[in-house]
Design brief:
This protein is of the alpha+beta class. The protein has a single domain (3-297), classed as Thrombin, subunit H (Beta Barrel). The protein has five helices and 18 strands. The strands form five sheets. The chain has a six-stranded antiparallel beta sheet. The model has no long low-confidence stretch (mean pLDDT 90).
Amino acid sequence: MFVKAIQDVSRFTRPIHTITRVYGEPVVTPGAATFFFVNELGCAITCKHVMEVLAQRDAINENYRRFRQEKDILGRNNQYKKRLSALEEKFRLRNDTTIQLKDQFVNCTYAPTLRYRAIHHPVYDLSILVFEEFTQPAYQSFARFKKNGDELQPGKFLCRLGYPFPEFSNFRYDAELDDIEWTAEGKVDSPIFPMEGMITRHVGDQERIMGLELSTPGLRGQSGGPVFDSEGTICGMQMNTTHLHLGFDMKDHVYINNGKAIHVNNQPFLHTGRCLHVNVIKDFLRENDIKFYEEDGSLPGDQ
């Protein structure tokens, strides 16, 4: 049903790779999010919450750099542990504190450098990415949006695309420098992963429908990814997943398995994906004079 659509949408959907490290651990943790291009000029969209995390990168890295700088001059004496504890308190470092964060926008351009500015929606979980002085694009197509978003009603099947399972390995921890870094070795890609779902409900209020609820969850890493129909027409963007309590709780339920009594406690939830509605996306692109196309290839701004 979605075979050709997935192939088409994959041509302009790309991953954001991140590597992070928490205080006190040399372990590097990979992560991913998704964005997709809306025109041939290097303009794309993703979730605002993704960009808000990346916006903290410089502050996080600078905080740890200053901590290391002061730590290096503490001196190893009987007051070391006390002074170190005070220094950790000063820089607000705990065992679960993220101390380093680095990111890469993958397969966007063949040019050596990549700079962008982000335009955040004042209300909804949406950001526009404008890649500046953009040359040598590495994507082969761009989104075409649903012309009439009112046609997106409960019962219609859609598909989402993203990068929920980061398998890239081109990073390492440098113990000598106490730093994480990207490397030229290792796997640089992760597989793109589709997941279909039925529209179950509209999300919003009496004034405006701002989103679509799908019957399946959006997975971690699919945030910012396109939601589309069987023709590859963009109908929305994956935002988050909600957890609906089903009410089928099992408290000390006993069943027999191979002659043994098994006691089970379970509180099941239905995980449903929330997607930003195509109408919200198109309105925000118009407001910011970002060129985009609808499913028939037309430029709405010219109509």
